[in-house]
Amino acid sequence: MSEIVASQQLPPGCQQPPPPTDAERSAFLVVDHVSKVFQSNREMVVALQDFSCSVDAGTFVAIVGPSGCGKSTLLRISAGLAQPTSGAVLVKGKKIEGPGPDRGVVFQSYTSFPWLTVRENVEFGLKLRNISEELRREASRRLIAQVGLSGFENAYPETLSGGMKQRVAIARTLANYPDILIMDEPFGALDYQTRWAMQELLLDVWEKEKKTVLFVTHDIEEALFLADAVIVVSQRPGRVKNTLAIPFERPRVSALKANQDFVAMKTEIVNLVRLEMPPEFGGRR
Ligand SMILES: Nc1ncnc2c1ncn2[C@@H]1O[C@H](COP(=O)(O)OP(=O)(O)OP(=O)(O)O)[C@@H](O)[C@H]1O
Ligand SMILES: [Mg+2]
């Protein structure tokens, strides 16, 4: 992977944010007693109830829990794409009221524009902000290299594999220099081997970019491999059931997944999630 261009050479408005203060560090993203109720004509669904957690700056937090427990709802609220019924999500002490460039979102479905090339996709947000072509090119070259897509700058997404499409989505999101990456099962549609490679790539990018990450996955091994902390969400209405600190040293490589302590912790988290699943889906209640 090519060397990262120094941040002072990045486009104006795209500089790395200054290092957070101690106060910001201790509470970079705060989910403060969030509840979300969906009301349709026929029924009312309480997706989240009194959900509280906090994510420190520069840390990687994974969220796991049974299907339908409100994980995506929580991420959508954190991204500003939905409003909580009560409570609030705060980033650096400021209440989130809508989407913003400080939060970059990557979903399971590939979100690149099919009519734009890889380079144009990565540069899209910068173009919207009237960043000069030269600076856009510099930023896209660096990010495309970082996600291992050098040589594919002029390809259209439809000609790329699923893993490559998702790498475009990650590069495109990083191009906007968000403070926090919000990722909802970003590797959920990928095959096992590609998923492993993408996990290592994401850790590599994360270690270089020092982003804060909030990451939802169904794959408990993935959560454990990537994160500093794993939050286990209860069955719906979702609330925090457990928060586990993940002690494994970094940098992490795939061989860690065979480590005895890793496997033991994976089993522990699998069991916590299974307790929240209905018996017909393999739950243990
Ligand atoms: N826009 C909506 N309108 C009505 N109900 C909704 C809406 N979005 C989500 N829900 C409901 O809220 C609950 C939580 O959904 P959510 O998508 O957050 O779960 P999830 O934990 O992400 O599930 P999965 O793991 O399957 O992705 C579900 O019962 C879902 O039906
Ligand atoms: Mg979901």
Quick tags:
single chain; 285 residues; alpha/beta; Rossmann fold; six-stranded mixed beta sheet; four-stranded antiparallel beta sheet; 8 helices; 10 strands; 21% strand; globular; disordered N terminus; binds adenosine-5'-triphosphate; binds magnesium ion
In this entry the ligands are: adenosine-5'-triphosphate, magnesium ion
Mean pLDDT metric: 89
CATH architectural designation: 3-Layer(aba) Sandwich
User: Topology as H/E string?
Assistant: HEEEHEEEHHHEHEHEEH
Low-pLDDT stretches = 1-10
CA radius of gyration: 19 Å
Strand content: 15-25%
As for the CATH topology, it is: Rossmann fold
Give a quick account of the main beta sheet: strands, pairing sense, barrel closure.
Answer: 6 strands, mixed
CATH class: Alpha Beta
Quickly count the domains: 1
How many angstroms separate the termini?
A: 47 Å
User: Can you count the beta strands?
Assistant: 10
Helix/strand-derived category reads alpha/beta
What is the count of helical runs? 8
Measured as a percent range, the helix fraction is 25-40%
CATH superfamily: P-loop containing nucleotide triphosphate hydrolases
Structural description of this entry:
- With 285 residues, the protein is α/β, with parallel strands linked by helices.
- It has one domain (7-277): P-loop containing nucleotide triphosphate hydrolases (Rossmann fold, 3-Layer(aba) Sandwich), CATH 3.40.50.
- Helix content is 32%, strand content 21%.
- The protein has helices at 22-26, 71-79, 118-128, 133-146, 162-174, 192-209, 220-226, 260-274; strands spanning 29-39, 44-55, 60-64, 86-91, 94-95, 103-106, 180-184, 212-216, 229-233, 240-245.
- The strands form two sheets. The chain has a six-stranded mixed beta sheet, with helices on both faces. Strands 2-1-4-5 form a four-stranded antiparallel beta sheet, covered by helices on one side.
- Helix 3 (118-128) packs parallel to helix 5 (162-174).
- The protein is globular and about 55 Å long.
- The N and C termini lie far apart (47 Å).
- 38% of the residues are buried.
- Adenosine-5'-triphosphate (ATP) binds next to strand 2 and helix 2.
